[in-house]
Amino acid sequence: MNTQTHGVAPLSEAELLDLEALLRARRTELEEDGARIEEALEAVRVAREDSTTDDEHDPEGPTLTNEWSRLSGLRDDLAPKLATVDGALAKIAAGTYGICTRDGAPIGAARLEARPEAELCIHCARELEARR
User: Fold this and answer.
1) What integer pLDDT is reported at residue 77 of this predicted model?
2) Taking the chain, what is the end-to-end CA distance rounded to the nearest angstrom?
3) Measured between alpha carbons, how far is 19 from 104 in angstroms, rounded to an integer?
4) Closest Cα to residue 117, out of 80, 76, 64?
C-alpha cells in the first residue's frame, strides 16, 4: 500500500474527537429515524387490519399498501447507513479512521466533515469516479 499524503495532513486529536461526535450524532439520528419508521409501519399495520379501511379508494392520499412499501423501503435503507457509521466508529476505536483504504493516505478533515464515513481520500475517490 502506498503511503502518499497527497498534501493532506493526518487528523489532529481535536479533529478526530469532533468527527467521532459527528458520527455518534449521525448514528443517533438514524436510530431515531428508524424508531419513527417503525411507529409508522405499526400504524399502517393496524390500519390494514381495520376492516373499515378502504385501501384502494382513499381519495385523501396513498393506499395503505403503497405506504407500507414506502416505509419498508426507508427502513431497509437504514441498515446499510447504520453499518457504515458503525464501521467508521470501529475504525476510530482501532486507530485506523481517516486513512484511505485504497492508498493509505490521510483522508483529510474537510472531506471527513462532509462525509464522516468516507473510506477513500479525495484523490482516490476522484480517480475511481473518473473510471466510471
Assistant:
1) 97
2) 23
3) 19
4) 80
Domain span including residue 54: 13-96
Angle separating helix axes 64-94 and 13-49, nearest 10 degrees: 160
Amino acid at 58: D
Q: In this structure, is residue 103 part of a structural domain?
A: no
CA distance 33 to 82: 11
Q: How many domains does the chain have?
A: 1
- Give the pTM: 0.82
User: Alpha-carbon distance 13 to 11, whole Å?
Assistant: 7
Measured CA to CA in angstroms, residue 29 lies from 71, 97, 113, 119 at distances of 17, 21, 16, 21
Position 1 scores a pLDDT of 47
> Do 10 and 104 contact (CB within 8 A), yes or no?
no
Regions of the chain short of the pLDDT cut 70: 1-3, 51-61
